[in-house]
Write a structure and sequence with these properties.
The chain is of the alpha/beta class. It has a single domain, classed as UDP-N-acetylmuramoyl-L-alanine:D-glutamate ligase. It contains 10 helices and 13 strands. It has a 9-stranded mixed beta sheet with strand order 5-4-1-8-9-10-11-12-13, with helices on both faces. Strands 3-2-6-7 form a 4-stranded mixed beta sheet. The longest helix is centred in the last third of the chain and has 18 residues. The protein is globular and about 65 Å long. It binds adenosine monophosphate.
């Protein structure tokens, strides 16, 4: 099953306690599609400026990512500048320049209008809605967002959530959106806004899934070397949605497996800056780490 994704394609400047990267390839749609490309075919809808090098588009194409929906227009590519301190779970945004995204009008390639899985990666919720309005009858619509949009476009986000089956969001952002410090209560409030399933990403503490009937808890992989958490959430979403697309099964049991595939992809991503580590993977490495996750969480009953 193919995946349609809309989100940012960016130049990121990132500082962590372990190093620094300037104007490297980033963006929510970039991380998502590279991660998901190990599982299924992805079509990316986004915009870049004249300053975006061909080699980045070629890299995406080399992963068999369909870039026909990636527009290049006059102006500058989206830029994000962030810093992480010793608590790598918390990104501090220093600067966001929407540039070509501020006037972007997404166009979906004709043969992707009947995509069965749509992922609305982190970007302006009004753009996420414009994409949703163009697709015919997707089986799964999943979505991510961040504090920037929760604070700036909450009404648009609330409207969008009514049409979303799965919301994938950070712990702090779940609390902020729900205006509720208790995560269990925040989850109930968010599920009341539309999504059937809520996945809360908790950085080095893993992820939680709420669907109103059960709760599933996944650990994060205990890594000794973490260089850059940028894109962890998007590569998580790529592995998660990628597995759902490849298996064609969105049962609760399979959503649990997808969460582990998401955790596997996020754990690889944080091992290097930009997309360096994500680009060097293959299915055997991914499956080997999936098995390690299984050992990590296995315990006997009473
Ligand atoms: P995450 O997976 O949450 O670490 O997302 C990191 C990516 O989000 C970076 O590569 C940024 O380019 C991108 N990003 C940061 N702020 C925004 C924003 N306001 N809208 C869309 N993408 C963003």
């Amino acid at each position: 099953m193919d995946i349609l994704v809309v989100g940012s394609v960016a130049f990121d400047s990132v500082e962590t306690p372990f190093g620094k990267a300037d104007e490297v390839l980033g963006g929510s749609a970039t991380y998502f599609s590279t991660s998901a490309s190990y599982f299924a075919k992805v079509c990316i809808v986004a915009v870049v400026g004249e300053d975006f090098p061909d080699e980045h588009v070629e890299m995406l194409n080399s992963k068999d990512i369909d870039t026909r929906g990636l527009q290049r227009v006059p102006g500058k590519t989206f830029r994000w500048k962030g810093r992480y301190e010793y608590d790598l779970n918390q990104a501090h945004t220093l600067d966001t320049q929407l540039n070509v995204f501020s006037s972007f009008d997404p166009t979906i390639p004709e043969d992707y209008k009947d995509a069965e899985i749509v992922f609305l990666a982190n970007i302006d919720p009004e753009l996420q809605m414009k994409v949703l309005d163009q697709v015919k009858n997707p089986r799964i619509v999943a979505c991510d967002t961040m504090n920037f949009w929760i604070e700036g476009k909450k009404d648009a986000l609330k409207k969008l959530l009514k049409r979303v089956e799965i919301l994938v969001i950070n712990e702090g952002e779940a609390r902020e959106f729900a205006e509720e410090p208790n995560l269990v209560k925040a989850a109930a409030m968010i599920l009341g806004c539309g999504p059937k399933t809520l996945i809360v990403k908790r950085g080095e503490y893993g992820a939680l899934m709420f669907d109103g009937k059960s709760v599933f808890s996944a650990p994060a992989y205990p890594l000794e070397d973490i260089f850059d958490p940028t894109g962890a959430g998007d590569s998580f979403a790529g592995g998660f949605i990628g597995h759902l697309a490849a298996s064609g099964d969105s049962s609760e049991a399979n959503i649990r497996k997808a969460i582990i595939y998401g955790s596997v992809m996020a754990s690889f991503n944080v091992e290097a800056f930009s997309l360096e580590r994500l680009n060097s993977l293959d299915k055997d490495k991914i499956d080997a780490r999936y098995s390690e996750f299984q050992c990590l969480t296995h315990f006997e009953g009473i």
